[in-house]
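Um, can you check?
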Amino acid sequence: MPLTDAAAQGVPADDAQWWRSAVIYQVYVRSFADSDGDGTGDLRGVRSRLGYLKELGVDALWFNPWYPSPFADGGYDVADYRDIHPAFGTLEDAEQLIADALALGIRTIIDIVPNHISSEHPWFQAALAAGPGSPERERFWFHPGRGAGGDEKPNGWVSEFTGEPWTRTVNPDGTPGDWYLHLFTPEQPDLNWNHPDVRAEHEDILRFWFDRGVAGVRIDSAAQLMKHPDLVDYPEQPGPGEHPHIDRDELHDVYRSWRAIADEYDGTRVLVGEVWLPDAERFAAYLRPDEMHTAFNFDFMSRPWDASELRRSVDLMLDAHALVGAPSTWVLSNHDVTRPVTRYGREDSSFAFAKKRFGTPTDVALGTRRARAAALLTAALPGSLYLYQGDELGLPEVELPRDVLEDPMHFRSEGVDPGRDGCRVPMPWRGTVEPFGFSPDGSYAAPWLPQPAAWAGLSVQAQEADPASMLWLYRQALRIRRRETALGDGPMTWLDSAPDVLAFRRGSGPDEVVCVVNLGAEPIELPEHHHILLASSPLDGGRLPTDSTAWLRTRS
């Protein structure tokens, strides 16, 4: 049953700005907790672990797509936006989860994937059946092709997953038919956002889920929706807004209409964009007061473990957000990105999809030390914080056997790219052998991706008993972040420091907090302070060790 009264859902009525400082935990449902023993995580499994998430200290949960899907791309090929994938549960399970989380003061954010749908969606099946030139095909990008007989693809665009973004259909008589556009996999046909049906459908989808109590939507590939109506080839040097399918100016009208819908509801329903853009001003344009509330900060996540690089990213993002009065977001990883413990232990600690390869060496001890320091750094920066499931346990990326991989990025790279499955391995909760509490004892199926034996020492149960663990660090950090008024959204001031040190002040007066991050090769003296609130590593004779962060109370 839809839930429409924010107060009845346990949402504080006076907390309209909750999103500006929130800690948002990303749940990849398939890998979080399995309640029925089939090896796949589900919504009842998430409900069973809400106490853990409350204890961790999060304000909201962001769920990857939980809709019916053939899983050609991990659920980002949606077949029905108004239901739940049977492997995850039912619509009633989702409604109960939303309500149970809200009763604990935890909001829910869900994924919307507006660029494309599943090739099994009724709209696309109707388009295939209707044939060339039909109204049903106008909701997509069908094209007869170029050259004699339409044998050449319509343009020279490139898929986001490498390879061709055009697939040719077959007519009922067996002859080659129209081509259709899919910037991702062939099972994800792109929608035509110039068509009124497409806009109306997504506006109705927003209302459907807002009516059921979700506090916001995360918009996948948010800068990709609009295409040049003539499907022109890439210009040699496109100016702002001139790319044929990325960041087109007319896209902003879509998000203005979505914001108007969100603003109709009590409790501040937020729009969060997945916006990968190199131009900070173009990025910030999506965060104007009548568009999205926030967008993911991919720049910071992609930078190497280097003081000048990280400071440059912080300045870039804070300056861009200041243009529109929006808070920045800070995130170290997600369901697509190499986990921090692995990434920060590599010679090249930056992230780029094009660089992912099998067998890349990593120093896990070094990566873990840096990931602990990065956790405190991001939690001290102004704005909201995103935490991907398992990062609070310090889980490393898993290099899986090729025969268990499912990610289309791996297959479309002809096996060169290991894909994203390595950061999607199911969570270890307890015990010393697989499935580590992910599934109930005596389950009839193994986890959908295998868990390493070494994860016995990284389970929630193991870390709850260890005050030096990553889990303890995260719990302490989020508890302090919630308590200290200087942290979360608000001003920040850089302090003078050595080139390989980051130091900044949050707040002022008796509530002032100073964050110091040592990225250099030697321990450093801490600035004058009253006491240490939290440190990512034990001090070395009163000095902050290399690859460590400390939060300082400067006054009594």
Q: What stands out?
A: Residues 383 and 462 are 31 Å apart (CA to CA). The chain has 14 helices and 18 strands. The radius of gyration is 24 Å. The chain has a mean pLDDT of 94.
